[in-house]
Design a protein that fits this description.
About 30% of the residues lie in helices and about 30% in strands. α5 packs parallel to α7. About 20% of the residues are buried. The chain is elongated, with a radius of gyration of 36 Å. It contains seven helices and 14 strands.
Length: about 325
């Protein structure tokens, strides 16, 4: 045993003592390397939460709602009377030559459909959401309501032929036509547009001797904006101090403003929008909502799951005096 052996033993002893101290002081087995601040300590979470944006449905704002049909009814039947007769100057003789009057009655039927959706969550999801301070159930219910409202809006505008639901654009007795004027771009002569728009408004009024006719107009935002923002020009450089829409509203039977509905954009493919002229009352257009709004079934619970079912009862759109209304398809181009 010499000095070299003593040096080796001392080095081993020092290493053993060092390891023992490390185990004594750091019993958590986590490395001492790194920062004293975790990444999460330097992160600020904004209180604002970003929400997905949706185009607002327009049908409940534009058209009258009829809630007279009780819940549970499957069909809506409408009766209409038709009258006929003539009068004449009485000359002489018996009454066989005196003309007569008569009437007849017809009916038509509209189907009532249920639009359904549901919100489903478990007990553990609700528990975890409470721990995370997240309104999980309330958010699911809001999503369910919004989903039903968007679906109702789609059915009100477009309907569903297979399901027998009549909407604005698929209403079978609504007059439709295609305008020969192209909207959009820089128009040098807007007198023709004014005459065309007034012709659409006046047609039913003149044909019915003032009994029928629209008092409201709704179209896509881009067509409405073009009408309201295009100068009124006669093609010879005259005019321009007023907008086409301003002159139209001042000279037509349309009340209020030109309403806008994004649902009327590209209805017949890209670049073809619709203008809907209608009578703003339940005889012109009525949105048939049995029960008046969204209905909810009692909360259903199975083991750990909960399910909330919501539904709309919808009889589609009724235009009982459809002669008031007219749908015009127009092309639109930015150039």
């Amino acid at each position: 045993f010499d000095s070299a052996d003593a040096a080796v033993l001392k080095a081993r002893f020092d290493t053993a003592v060092h390891d023992l101290n490390e185990r004594t002081l750091r019993a958590d087995a986590i490395s001492a390397q790194g920062s004293g601040l975790s990444a999460g300590k330097l992160r600020h979470v904004l209180a604002r939460v970003l929400e997905e944006k949706y185009a607002l449905p327009t049908e409940l704002e534009l058209f009258p709602v009829d809630t007279s049909v009780p819940l549970g009814k499957r069909e809506i039947e409408v009766h209409r009377f038709y009258e006929a007769g003539e009068a004449a100057i009485y000359r002489s003789g018996d009454g066989s030559q005196i003309p007569k009057v008569s009437y007849s009655q017809e009916s038509m039927t509209f189907r009532v459909r249920q639009y359904v959706t549901s919100a489903v969550w478990s007990f553990f999801e609700e528990q975890q959401a409470q721990a995370a301070e997240v309104e999980h159930v309330a958010r699911l219910l809001r999503v369910a309501r919004r989903t039903l409202e968007l679906f109702l809006n789609e059915m009100t505008w477009y309907g569903d032929d297979q399901a027998g639901i009549y909407g604005i654009l698929n209403y079978p007795w609504l007059d439709r036509e295609v305008s020969d004027l192209a909207f959009g771009g820089q128009a040098t002569n807007t007198v023709s547009y004014l005459r065309s728009l007034n012709n659409f408004v006046n047609r039913a009024h003149h044909a019915s001797k003032g009994v029928l006719g629209p008092n409201k107009m709704v179209t896509s935002p881009r067509v409405a904006d073009w009408i309201m923002q295009s100068p009124f020009l006669d093609g010879n450089g005259a005019g321009g101090d007023r907008m086409l829409g301003e002159v139209f509203l001042a000279t037509s039977r349309i009340e209020g403003q030109i309403e806008q509905a994004h649902e009327l954009e590209n209805v017949l493919g890209n670049g073809v929008d619709a203008i809907f002229f209608y009578r703003d009352d339940v005889m012109g257009v009525a949105n048939m909502l049995s029960g008046g709004g969204i209905q909810a079934l009692p909360l259903h619970q199975t083991d750990i799951d909960r399910r909330q079912i919501m539904f709309y009862n919808h009889g589609g759109v009724q235009m009982l005096e459809v002669g008031n209304n007219l749908c015009v398809f127009v092309t639109f181009s930015e150039s």
